[in-house]
Amino acid sequence: MTQNIDQEYSRLNQAIADEGMDFVDFKVVDLFGRWRHLTVPARNFNRDFLRKGVGFDGSSYGYKMVEESDMLFLPQLDTARREPVGEDEVFSIIGDIYQLSGTGELVPFQEDPRGTINRAVEFMQENGIADQFLVSPEFEFYVFSGATFHYGREEGGFKVDSPELPRVNPGDREKQVNRDHFLLGHQGYHGPRPGDSVMGLRNRVTSYLEREGIEVKYHHHEIGGAGQSELEVHPLEVVNAADNTMYIKHIVKVIADMTGASATFMPKPIANFPGSGMHLHQYLVRDGKNLFSGDEYAGLSETAMFFIGGLLEHGESLLAFTNPSTNSYRRLIPGHEAPTDLIFAKSNRSAAIRIPGYIQSGSRVRIELRTMDGTCNPYLAYAAILMAGLDGIRNRIDPRTLGYGPLERNVYELDQKEKEEIRSTPTSLEGALEALEDDHEYLLAGGVYTKDLIEDWVSLKRGEVEDFYDKPHPYEHVIYYDV
Fold first, then answer.
1. pTM to 2 decimals?
2. Which of 25, 83, 112, 230 is catalytic?
3. Which one in 16, 197, 436, 448 has a CA-CA gap of 20 to 30 Å to 424?
4. Is residue 230 among the annotated active site residues?
5. How many beta carbons lie within 10 A of that of residue 148, not counting itself?
6. Is the C-alpha dihedral spanning 295, 301, 305, 308 positive or negative?
């Protein structure tokens, strides 16, 4: 463990006593990217949890088979934060996953997503490329006043609601009536109150995050006029940023639920409205210096160019980790808001990689990957992004010589011949998984990913694809029932 156990344990125990906490909540990420948790009374919280770990069934988390699924998680006390539970609060602590060796020693579980991103950082440092990989996600999500969904043998469907939506007159479903202030489907960007119905919720989430040490840059209403919102945070070292990604998504959903609303990071939860992504700003640092700042295109360095080259060269396979749901590809549709073309450019929001044009200071230069979404397991997604970029640096992959740009024109306005010369993202999760099977050597470098992890990931996600195609979609009844 990388922490001073006694010091951290004493500090946390004192905080538990000072604030009258009754429970400590341990959290571990499963392979899907969801948190699992186990709660212990605060009086039982002792050093044995930190030295011996807490046992659990890894097969229920998506790891391994039943016959070899006994695992342990060791709480990492430097991740401790409070979270609301009704009128009370608990201390929430993230854990790393371990197994017992044949000699009874605790050894890291090689498919632990948090262990994977830690190995990626170690690989970067051991190769002398950089000291830190700093990232800052843009969290886009919808907040609905109500959300229900069901699927059975005889029926299936979903229903969401928002006070921002125009109402349908029950007596005439073709006629929409305005019961209150509303925002049209694609006119919500920075929309004001009272049309912005979820500003109070975003304020409450932001205040909670700030109290727990997460600095929020700002929040605002996003384009979708049905409660779509965005919250941005400042750059952090990538492991901490991955922990915070899990925590922020959790707090958004918990506080929404506490207020009677429902929040989702699903990429495309509602038809004919914009999708939700999770754009990732990123740069490398060594000896306190931003390695992406230089004299090349758009104020970037040669190192940044090679990093971009790695991201775009491995762009198709990368999506298996950054966009790992069937719903991801409802958002990634050519000609829509989300970018699907593997190019880079300054200020161009139709490009997969954008260099923000409003940044003047060299120390703040960064790139923004615009394809990924919130269904990703952040530990695996951030690790894959870092490994793709490092592969670009190690092999000097120049995106300019490979036809990835820069392209400063609107991709959506190119003619067909010009579009055919540009590589695009996969059109389905199945396509992304096939790309990963064909292109994953860059992930295996330094033992960061294991073949078992990649194979298990592909198997898990292929199962989702098969489940999806095994069942009729409600919209198929609309277009095919009367054939």
1. 0.94
2. 230
3. 448
4. yes
5. 11
6. negative
